[in-house]
From TrEMBL:
GO terms for biological process: methylation. It comes from the Bacteria. It comes from Psychrobacillus soli. The keyword Methyltransferase applies. Keywords: Methyltransferase, Transferase. One of its GO terms (molecular function) is tRNA (adenine(22)-N1)-methyltransferase activity. This is tRNA (Adenine-N(1))-methyltransferase. Pfam families: TrmK. Transmembrane segments: none annotated. Gene3D superfamilies: 1.10.287.1890, Vaccinia Virus protein VP39.
Length: 230
């Protein structure tokens, strides 16, 4: 993978970026995504944010090697700290992290979201944490997709400002994804069901306690919700 030939995962994230938006890519790693978006003419200006020194230096090197220093500003900082009001960022992408971490980044940087119109988020796991945060903070899901690459399944969630009220099932599996019921969606949740049933079997063999009972009830609820959605 490089800035001109993205992985399918990042190419799908890129497909949701609107033309000529001002972009901030948080946790940009090698800055492949913003470089690709400039090369393809989708954006003219972008910020690549990194909190880890190694990836930050890799992003700087990549942007220099692509000759894009004037278009992409690589910044070192934690989450949305790299964004300033004068940047007038309209779109934020965060890809390749766990859902709870992405949600915590958005929560910590809520004040930086005033000019932002689109959040394009690709959690590696636990996408529900993002849907929970979005519903609480008045962001609505306008698109979702699910894809498989190298035996890993990824969800991508696109948010815009607005209220939404999701059911418990929609929070878990996604309002768009549960309607589409793609083959990859079926594969993901069938695998999750198998794992939860395995855990339930193990719990049935352990000594009963309030904690075990609570865990069983949580799993039973999730199993029921997923079975309804398949």
């Amino acid at each position: 993978m490089n800035a001109k030939n993205l992985s399918e995962r990042l190419k799908t994230v890129a497909s949701f970026v609107e033309k000529n938006t001002i972009l901030a890519d948080i946790g940009s790693d090698h800055a492949y995504l913003p470089c690709y978006l400039v090369h393809t003419g989708i954006i003219t200006q972008g910020i690549a944010g990194e909190v880890v020194k190694g990836p930050f230096e890799s992003a700087q090197k990549q942007v220099r090697s692509e000759g894009l220093e004037k278009q992409i500003d690589v910044r070192f900082g934690n989450g949305l700290e790299v964004i300033q009001p004068t940047d007038k960022v309209q779109t934020i992408t965060i890809a390749g992290m766990g859902g709870p971490l992405i949600a915590s980044i958005l929560e910590a940087g809520k004040e930086k979201l005033k000019t932002v119109e689109n959040l394009i988020l690709q959690p590696n796991v636990h996408a529900k944490a993002i849907r929970d945060w979005a519903q609480k903070e008045n962001w609505k899901i306008v698109n979702e997709t699910i894809l498989e690459e190298h035996d890993k399944i990824y969800e991508i969630i696109v948010l815009q400002k607005g209220q939404m009220q999701l059911t418990e099932q929609e929070l878990l599996v996604g309002p768009f994804l549960t309607k589409e019921k793609s083959a990859i969606f079926h594969k993901k949740w069938s695998n999750e069901l198998s794992e939860w049933l395995r855990i339930m079997d193990q719990l049935s063999k352990t000594s009963e306690s309030p904690e075990v009972q609570q865990k069983k009830e949580e799993l039973e609820r999730k199993i029921a919700l997923v079975k309804e959605s398949l």
